[in-house]
What does this fold into?
Amino acid sequence: MTMDEQHIDGNGIAGLLGEIAGADMTIVMRRCQSCGDRRALGEHRAYRSAGVVLRCPNCHDVAVVIGMQETRLVAAWHGTYEIQRGT
It folds into this structure.
């Protein structure tokens, strides 16, 4: 199985991201700290195993790591995120 067969796009974990952030995170823009690429989280590659890792679609650097700790979800965010405020 190749790496491409092991991932889904970030839209595939929209519910999980929404549970963590309380909002639709798939439209949030992220600038990668490694390559500078700027894309919506929905375009990132999601790899599932014991948790979920979102990776930059350009350089594959880690964008978000999501795991379970006892009875709560935990997330580590990497890069710069642009979240639009409601009007």
